[in-house]
Write a structure and sequence with these properties.
This protein is 79% helix and 0% strand. α5 runs parallel beside α9 and α7 runs antiparallel to α8. It is globular. The mean pLDDT is 92. Pfam families: MIP. It is found in: Membrane. This is AQP12 protein. One of its GO terms (molecular function) is channel activity.
Length: 244
């Protein structure tokens, strides 16, 4: 369980660092720059690092860490709730930003800036998480370093099936988001966290259940077993179709 404690401390550190970044950007940058760039970068960075560490626990924990899927799903729900409460209005998801654009809630320039910040945030989160794993603070990280170069694709179904799964996850997530986005955070945050947890539990075995193009690109696009076009179809076109 020592490895789990280190991971929990890592989650706290990432969220705390991103909160400091949001606080500084809100005071040093213009409101437009903060909302379009800094806030989205911090949210995507936080989401990517947390997701990578959590996926590592999900894949290695049951046979090396001594804890099961119930522990990981509980962490997923709690982290999703923390993200929802701390993102300060950021979506950290390109499909959500595109939805705002289609609903005329965001301009083309602002949407493009958000997509850029989300991509950079996810890429930076991936690079720093790999650096953190290289320190091998726990046995789980040691094993992760050994298997990381040989990672396999998260697509474990036929391409049409996988794209349909990601599209369905995106559709259901956006449906809940549209329903609760005007609700009080006390209701909105746990509702979205429960939705993410449910979708990950049900769709995870088929595609990993990302339904977030930036997160998927940073997490699984570099793995072997599927072509780049396969990844585009499943993790970009699938969620985009579901959102539309």
């Amino acid at each position: 369980m020592d490895g789990l404690n280190v991971s929990i401390a890592f989650f706290f550190l990432v969220v705390g660092a991103c909160q400091v970044l949001r606080w500084l950007s809100k005071r040093l940058l213009s409101p437009r720059t903060h909302s379009c760039l800094a806030r989205e970068f911090a949210g995507s960075f936080q989401l990517c690092m947390s997701c990578l560490e959590l996926r590592m626990l999900m894949e290695i924990g049951p046979w090396s860490g001594g804890f099961g899927l119930d522990v990981v799903l509980t962490l997923l729900f709690l982290l999703s709730a923390v993200h929802g409460a701390s993102f300060d209005g950021a979506s950290a998801n390109p499909t959500v930003s595109l939805q705002e654009f289609l609903l005329l809630e965001s301009s083309l320039a602002a949407t493009a800036a958000k997509l850029l910040a989300q991509g950079v945030g996810a890429g930076t989160g991936w690079a720093l998480t790999r650096l953190y794993w290289s320190w091998e603070l726990t046995q789980l990280h040691f094993i992760q370093n050994l298997i990381a170069p040989e990672c396999s694709s998260s697509i474990r179904a036929s391409l049409p099936h996988a794209a349909f799964v990601e599209g369905s996850c995106s559709f259901l997530f956006h449906l809940v988001l549209l329903k609760v986005q005007q609700s009080h955070p006390l209701y909105r945050v746990p509702a979205l966290a429960a939705t993410v947890t449910f979708l990950t539990y049900t769709a995870g075995p088929f595609t990993g259940a990302f339904f977030n193009p930036a997160l998927a690109a940073a997490t699984t696009f570099h793995c072997s077993g599927s072509s780049f076009w396969d990844y585009i179809q499943v993790y970009w076109l699938g969620p985009l179709a579901g959102e539309i």
